[in-house]
Amino acid sequence: MRIRSKTTLGLMAALGLAAFTLSGAGAQTPAPRIVNTSKDPKDISGVWFITQEIRMNTDLQIRTRENSKNPSIGQVMWPQNPHREPPFSAWGRERWDKHLKAMIASAPIADPATSCIPHGVPRIVIAPYPVQIVQTPGLVTMLYEVNHNIRLVHLNQPLPKNPKITMMGYSVGHWEGDTLVVETVGLDDSAILDEAGTPHSTKLKVTERIRKIDGGSLLEETMTFEDPIAYTAPWSSRSVLAWRPDIPLTEYVCEENNRNPVAADGSTAVPTK
Asked: Are residues 240 and 219 in contact, defined by beta-carbon separation less than 8 angstroms?
């Protein structure tokens, strides 16, 4: 499995959990601020990269138990309040507890991305790889380096009533002032929201509000999750990406998956050297 050299990964990455450096745990050097020459608030084209600040703001260091061999988990798409978890339903709680118990036992449930399956939404948003946004009439295309995932945001169209279930779902969008509002449905429930295994059902609807901030050098994404099966109420999280024209997308090869294959019991194998 190919891993971009700019990102520091630890053992959790090899286990499919990608434990990227957290606040207070050897933080990385913050990404440089690069002035975005486009002053058009509706021009979000270009290359963007998740920032160190977002990892500090949205990561939830989950202290599992005193006897846990994996005391913390990185890149968790949970509410901004670090002491509050999503409003799990009984169905969602059962799935989350299953992931948590497996992590405590150091036998985490295999991450779909480990098998080169598309990351899904919103997880693709927080992947530590660059994304290039291309805007054309009626369409916003998001080209992600990780696994060469592609999202098509169809502008000024209604959501399909019976969307085909896929890993990346179906996205429609429209502009509200300087904010691009994107709604995504039809997401496969084998995907997870983040590297901790936060679950969702096929009824999940993700609403993203995307806008440039800090003079255009940052891209803010506020995400709201509505899922009547997995959660008892809508909840939101936030991500920030930096404008990084100095990091062009490069080749990403995942298909071999000869580094951390999925075991027969559904867990991820210990990485080989």
From this structure: yes
Find all residues with CB under 8 Å of 105, minimum gap 6, and list them: none
Token pair for 180 = 């691009």
Please report, as a single letter, which amino acid is at residue 182.
Answer: V
The Cα 13–Cα 195 span in angstroms is 9
Q: For residue 134, how far is the Cα from the chain centroid?
A: 19
User: Based on the structure, what is the number of domains in the chain?
Assistant: 1
Task: Give domain status of residue 257, yes or no.
Answer: no
Could you give the C-alpha distances from 42 to 92, 155, 181, 216, 237, in angstroms and in order?
37, 13, 11, 10, 22
Q: Give the model's pLDDT for residue 31.
A: 58
pLDDT tens digits, one per residue of 158-187? 999 999 999 999 999 999 999 999 999 999
Q: Which two tokens stand for residue 173?
A: 């969008």
Could you tell me the sign of the dihedral formed by the alpha carbons of 36, 41, 45, 47, in that order? positive
Evaluate if residue 59 carries a pLDDT over 70: no
CB atoms within 10 A of CB 43: 14
273: in domain: no
Q: Structural domain of residue 38, as residue ranges?
A: 11-24+34-243
Q: What is the distance between the alpha carbons of residues 100 and 197, in angstroms, rounded to a whole number?
A: 8
